[in-house]
């Protein structure tokens, strides 16, 4: 093997502590940063959507992506937290006569030497949590059998894109898979599709499937996600009336809107609003019907919720808030929606976004369920040893003062999957990642970190009306969450404040020019 060559990048005087600089090395962007008395270097593109890491936040020896909060070790390139899909390239660094040189770190090749040690992990559900758990087991050195099971016909894909870029047409079908074609084969992960689970015995860690098969393992991760909440709405079985959860659902909607001009969306949830944004990109007339007075007010508060409503109205959406649908009419296919006050809305397509429910029917009678969810401890392990739960179905102890929480967010599920796998590998750490969520509507990236389950004060930085603001949510003077449009760095910093348990006052949040000063 030829010796790896060093490449001159920048003069070390260009590197101020904690201030990343980008250099080109073999046509690749490399981020360099001074960390105390040393210089570290890694690839500059996040492995999620390619976000520029140099525009993110440096905390200790980690960099946080400015787009969706993935976190990487700057020295080793290792993924520290999703939504990154694997690590970034890592580089060795040396200085000579004041210049900084880098070269790619030599890969260990450990993953190619794996031989099964006879142990096994069964992952039930191949969404965000399941896919990330499988990756983490392998990168963490697990040499046993890994079986990843999904009832869908597709390999794991990015479900968040369905109601965002896929509906608008920006994202192509080939963009949706999370991994390269041979990823699971190369990682020796046995991916099993079209396998519907119908039962699970936690004592024997055995899963039963609709085709009569059973699978058992030494350790099991339950991460079957959610299913759409169905409305008891007369006529909702008609053609062109849809729920949106899977890739198959999204494709059916796209096929229907090719010949449609009018769509009615029932529900002003994230799914409903993102779908509205995507349909407006296609010049479809969109009307939204929802029982609440202000969209997303329960998540962001009324002021931000009102701004989100106006963003949609500015883009041509008509709302019917404070109302519900009474009936779907039409001969075969839908033609109208009749509301509770008798209003009739013409529609070629109806999309129902009434929320989701944990997919846990197969756990009835197992002893794992409490109030329809699966309680876990800080290691994401259930009361049955060797059985873990993650994602939408898991009720997780909360360390931020708002009680145990169940959160239906993609990145949260990924982080659950990573943590559960690390627990299986022997980690004794409790899960303490603050929740993170983002939604994209008409080019506006709306982000939230922390929990708005309980708060008694909202403090604003910037201008809500001009879509350049962040909002801090406080309970008893203690920060619980940060949301933003246009000030994404505040959410990065807010997440670190929550994670590290750093106490700040509402006045500090409002008046501190750069919140990074509060990290200490």
Overview in brief:
By secondary structure, this protein is α/β, with parallel strands linked by helices. The chain has 4 domains: 7-104, 3-layer Sandwich (Rieske Iron-sulfur Protein); 113-227 and 358-424, FAD/NAD(P)-binding domain, CATH 3.50.50; 241-353, FAD/NAD(P)-binding domain, CATH 3.50.50; 454-519, 2-Layer Sandwich (Enolase-like, domain 1), CATH 3.30.390. The strands form 9 sheets. It has a 6-stranded antiparallel sheet, with no helix packed on it.
The CATH topology label of the largest domain is FAD/NAD(P)-binding domain
The total beta strand count reads: 35
By CATH reckoning, the class of the largest domain would read Alpha Beta
Strand content of the residues, in percent?
A: 25-35%
Number of helices: 10
Structural class: alpha/beta
User: CATH superfamily name of the largest domain?
Assistant: FAD/NAD(P)-binding domain
What is the overall shape?
Answer: globular
- State the end-to-end distance: 46 Å
Low-confidence stretches: 108-114
Rg calc: 24 Å
Number of domains: 4
CATH architecture of the largest domain: 3-Layer(bba) Sandwich
> Mean pLDDT across all residues, rounded?
94
* Percent in helix: 10-25%
Query: Could you describe the largest sheet, including whether it forms a barrel?
Result: 6 strands, antiparallel
Strand order across the largest sheet: 1-10-9-4-3-2
């Amino acid at each position: 093997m030829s010796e790896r060559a060093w490449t001159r990048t920048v003069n070390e005087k260009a590197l101020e502590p904690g201030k990343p600089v980008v250099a080109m090395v073999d046509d690749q962007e490399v981020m360099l940063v001074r960390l105390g008395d040393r210089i570290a270097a890694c690839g500059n593109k996040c492995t999620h959507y390619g976000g520029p890491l140099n525009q993110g936040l440096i905390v200790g020896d980690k960099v946080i992506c400015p787009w969706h909060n993935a976190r990487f070790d700057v020295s080793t390139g290792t993924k520290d937290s999703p939504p990154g899909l694997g690590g970034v390239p890592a580089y060795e660094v040396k200085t000579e006569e004041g210049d900084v040189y880098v070269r790619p770190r030599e890969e260990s090749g450990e993953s190619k030497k794996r031989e099964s040690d006879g142990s096994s992990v069964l992952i039930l559900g191949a969404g965000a949590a399941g896919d990330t758990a499988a990756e983490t087991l392998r990168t963490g050195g697990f040499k046993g059998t890994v079986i990843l099971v999904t009832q869908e016909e597709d390999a794991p894909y990015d479900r968040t894109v369905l109601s965002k870029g896929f509906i608008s047409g920006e994202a192509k079908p080939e963009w949706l898979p999370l991994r390269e074609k041979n990823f699971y084969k190369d990682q020796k992960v046995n991916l099993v599709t079209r396998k519907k689970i119908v039962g699970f015995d936690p004592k024997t860690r055995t899963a039963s499937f609709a085709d009569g098969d059973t699978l058992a393992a030494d350790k099991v991760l339950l991460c079957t996600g959610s299913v759409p909440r169905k409305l008891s709405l007369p006529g909702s079985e008609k053609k062109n009336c849809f729920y949106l959860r899977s890739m198959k659902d999204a494709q059916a909607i796209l096929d229907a809107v090719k010949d449609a001009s009018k769509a009615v969306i029932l529900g002003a949830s994230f799914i409903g609003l993102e779908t509205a944004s995507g349909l407006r990109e296609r010049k479809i007339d969109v009307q939204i019907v929802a029982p609440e007075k202000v969209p997303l007010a329960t998540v962001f508060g009324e002021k931000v919720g009102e701004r989100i409503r106006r963003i949609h109205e500015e883009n041509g959406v008509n709302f019917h808030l404070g109302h519900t649908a009474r009936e779907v009419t039409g001969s075969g296919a839908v033609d109208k929606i009749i509301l509770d006050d008798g209003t009739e809305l013409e529609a070629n397509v109806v999309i129902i976004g009434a929320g989701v429910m944990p997919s846990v029917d197969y756990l009835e009678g197992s002893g794992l369920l409490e109030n329809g969810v699966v309680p876990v401890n800080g290691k994401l392990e259930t009361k049955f040893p060797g059985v873990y739960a993650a994602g939408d179905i898991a009720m997780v102890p909360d360390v931020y003062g708002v009680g145990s929480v169940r959160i239906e967010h993609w990145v949260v599920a990924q982080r659950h999957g990573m943590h559960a796998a690390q627990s299986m590998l022997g980690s004794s750490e409790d899960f303490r990642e603050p929740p993170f969520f983002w939604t994209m509507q008409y080019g506006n990236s709306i982000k939230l970190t922390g929990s708005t389950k309980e708060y008694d004060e909202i403090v604003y930085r910037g201008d809500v009306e001009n879509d350049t603001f962040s909002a801090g949510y406080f309970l008893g003077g203690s920060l619980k969450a940060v949301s933003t449009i246009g000030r994404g760095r505040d959410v990065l910093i807010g997440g670190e404040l929550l994670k590290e348990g750093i106490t700040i006052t509402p006045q500090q949040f409002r008046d501190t020019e750069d919140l990074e000063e509060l990290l200490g």
